[in-house]
Amino acid sequence: MYRKAAIGLTFALLLLISYSIFIGTVDLRSYFIPLLKSSMLAPQSLCATGPPLKVFMYDLPRRFNVGMLNRKSAEEAPVTAREWPPWPRNSGLKKQHSVEYWMMGSVLWEGNGGEGSEVVRVSDPEVADAFFVPFFSSLSFNTHGHNMNDPETEIDVVKLLHESKYWNKSGGRDHVIPMTHPNAFIFLRPQVNASIQIVVDFGRYPHVMSNLSKDVVTPYVHVVESFTDDNSSDPYEFRTTLLFFQGRTHRKDEGIVRAKLAKVLAGYDDVHYERSVATGENIKLSTQRMRASKFCLHPAGDTPSSCRLFDAIVSHCIPVIVSDEIELPFEDELDYNQFSVFFSFKEALQPGCMVNELRKLSKEKWMEIDNPLRGKAYNRNHNIHIDSAGVL
Asked: Which residue pairs, CB below 8 angstroms and at least 24 apart, start in 14-18?
């Protein structure tokens, strides 16, 4: 049953991404409230292979989830689809870890079990295949955990789960908990580690604690706006910057490569490598510059991955991934080599190597790699399509 839950959740996440992660500019309520008619509400899933996964979602008070979006509200009753709040527009980098928000909203709406649904929400835990814990662990850390302590909300959730008959029945192995921020449950992780964790990579934890045998790697939510009106007749010539990066250059662990790359990539007229923090104005500048660049650099940050990979995808800028070991979302379904370029740390840090290799790519080859980002090519092996809005 646990294996079925993990596989089912992976499929459900693919559907979730189709709805929301790559369309992050749309008010989520239009997806999940049945009375708001939209052609996007009932796409046929490409992944459904059997009956929908039966999911029991814990009815947690709002302080564990959407209450953190509006801390002025004292409402404690569990949120419903009709009351679902929009994601705050000016949330900055907090948005990158908002998968927990989109997942909960998806269960609230998709859980109604419409035609083609991969998930049906059940009210009887006795018949559930999986248990979803709607706790915004990433937002909780960003909101309450600035002193690197486990927030009170985390402590309370762990207590609630350990008192649950159904957690104790399986030891938590059929429970799904989103924890995409690397510091979510930073000290309490061992107490919930048996669960199926929704993560963005495995950078902070040993493989015995977090791994693909039980967990699901999901995309970050992109921070820049999707490039939905990319109508250039000659995008190769229009994009005058060869390689673009804008962000923090001093990071921990594998992220030290960023400071080294700053030196290696200095002095090129067609390379933009800028140290920057994620203010609202800088995010707007980054959006414009990504749309004017042929390639967008994706080096490791504090962990092996970052949201800029998905910022590049929705900007139709070919990602250049610098990593010796990175787990990418849904690698069994998506061939990232079709729309990305990879360099090892050694290759990237060799002076001139990365720039020269990118310059060697002909216009025709660049267009071939870039086409999937623009909705002009299909992955025939898996029938996966990336359309002009960046939707999988």
From this structure: 14/45, 14/46, 14/47, 14/330, 14/333, 14/392, 15/45, 15/47, 15/106, 15/110, 15/118, 15/119, 16/102, 16/103, 16/106, 17/218, 17/219, 17/329, 17/391, 17/392, 18/43, 18/391, 18/392
